[in-house]
From TrEMBL:
Family affiliation: Belongs to the SbcD family.
Keywords carried by this UniProt record: DNA recombination, DNA replication, Endonuclease, Exonuclease, Hydrolase, Nuclease
UniProt function note: SbcCD cleaves DNA hairpin structures. These structures can inhibit DNA replication and are intermediates in certain DNA recombination reactions. The complex acts as a 3'->5' double strand exonuclease that can open hairpins. It also has a 5' single-strand endonuclease activity.
UniProt domain Nuclease SbcCD subunit D C-terminal: residue ranges: 267-355
InterPro entries reported for this sequence: Calcineurin-like_PHP, DNA_Repair-Maintenance_Comp, Metallo-depent_PP-like, Mre11_N, SbcD, SbcD_C
Membrane in keyword set: no
GO MF term set: 3'-5' exonuclease activity; endonuclease activity
PANTHER family: COMPONENT OF ATP-DEPENDENT DSDNA EXONUCLEASE, NUCLEASE SBCCD SUBUNIT D
Pfam families attached to this UniProt entry: Metallophos (PF00149), SbcD_C (PF12320)
Organism for this UniProt entry: Streptomyces lydicus
Protein name (database record): Nuclease SbcCD subunit D
Gene3D superfamilies (alphabetical): 3.60.21.10
């Protein structure tokens, strides 16, 4: 069985105000051509099809076109909803689409019901585990606690129970959208921390032949059988060093895995440059970045006059300008966004408490109360999205 593992399309997302629909269309063209040229048996999309719960019409049309093209090829597609998607919206028409080979898995209650495909060696069961917001799915899945590890563990218990009732030799693939321990995050993923914990152990997927993961935007191998495909496009400058790919996975008759990376088209290279303004303007070594999307960090002790207007003459596609003086009182002028980069909601809240109390950090009880409040707000937001 040969399948293409992708995730995190984020259709409708922009990059520092640059519309990416053309680049996303180019990726989907590449995906369809890969499916045709490499004789792929199934396409997997491990969540975050869209960038937000109510996507723009152009993104919906792009998604619709991709599904029609895959259906015309006669290649089954299995996809799950991610934390950016509205599960109910994405799942509309799932029953009808299934007749065309498009299998949408957005209901947590269906975690233990696979899409059954087959090859010359027998059946392969594909289980779709949509993003599981702990507070909303705990009762549905019968989890003991409202945290990521508990609800994903309960979902996997259903998978293993179903698999145990299937004929010997049935191979299995799980699609999941989660932050698995050992993965490396970037700045463009939405924080999914609950109860102070965002990640789940990779061992939760024990018992299946392959886990096709989504959520983290870098292509990563956590083990031979547990992998992230990453996003097909860069959605933050923290991904400047990423090689954007999909996984082309071969599952042999014994369930052994052979995986190959398939490069995605790159609309424009990303570059992060740093130094005093004069060097960024004059250094010949930086000429290779002149056609890139650029994030420039200025280290001048005093903010230069009209730096963006001067930089854009050399770097016409510059998108972000950051001030981070090497020394002196101007250091505090680092942008608010820069100071928050890579920090969770919990860390930001605790930093605020320490700031307004002249450096006295939150104690253990206060940290617990902040964590509870953040979890409650996140649960309310998810409930509101579901209700829309």
């Amino acid at each position: 069985m040969r399948f293409l593992h992708t995730s995190d399309w984020h259709l409708g997302r922009s990059f520092h105000r640059v519309n990416l629909l053309t680049a996303q269309r180019a990726f989907l063209d590449h995906l369809v051509e890969t499916v045709r040229a490499r004789e792929v048996d199934a396409v997997l999309v491990a969540g975050d099809v869209y960038d937000r719960a109510v996507p723009p019409l152009a993104a919906v049309e792009l998604f619709d076109d991709a599904l029609h093209r895959l259906a015309e090829l006669g290649v089954p597609t299995v996809m799950i909803s991610g934390n950016h998607d509205s599960a109910r919206r994405l799942g509309v028409g799932a029953g009808l689409m299934e007749r065309a080979g498009i299998h949408l898995r957005t209901d947590p209650a269906g975690c233990g019901t696979p899409v059954l495909l087959g090859d010359a060696h027998g059946p392969v069961a594909f289980y779709g585990l949509p993003y599981l917001e702990p507070a909303m799915v705990r009762e549905t899945l019968g989890a003991q606690r409202a945290d990521h590890a508990a609800v994903l563990g309960a979902a996997m218990d259903r998978v293993r129970a179903d698999l145990a009732d299937r004929p010997a030799g049935t191979r299995s693939v799980v699609l999941a959208h989660a932050f698995v321990t050992g993965g490396t995050a970037s700045d463009s993923e939405r924080d999914i921390t609950v109860g102070g914990v965002a990640s789940v152990p990779a061992g939760v997927f024990d018992g299946v032949d392959y886990a096709a993961l989504g959520h983290l935007h870098g292509c990563q191998t956590l083990s031979e059988r547990v992998r992230y495909s990453g996003s097909p496009l860069a959605y933050s400058f923290s991904e400047a060093d990423h090689r954007k790919t999909s996984w082309l996975v071969e599952l042999d008759e014994t369930g052994a895995v052979h995986a190959e990376r398939v490069d995605a088209p790159v609309p424009r290279a990303l570059a992060r440059i740093r130094g005093p303004l004069d060097r960024l303007l004059d250094d010949p070594a930086l000429a290779r970045h002149e056609d890139s999307w650029v994030e420039a960090t200025l280290t001048d002790a005093v903010r230069p006059h009209e730096p963006m207007a001067r930089l854009v003459k050399r770097y016409p596609h510059i998108l972000s300008l950051v001030f981070d003086p090497d020394e002196g009182p101007a250091r505090s002028s680092a942008s608010y966004a820069q100071r928050l980069r890579g920090r969770s909601d919990q860390e930001i809240a605790e930093d605020f408490v320490a700031h307004v109390r002249s450096g006295r950090a939150a104690d253990e009880q206060e940290r617990a109360e902040l964590r509870s409040a953040i979890d409650e707000v996140r649960a309310e937001d998810m409930a509101a999205e579901v209700a829309r």
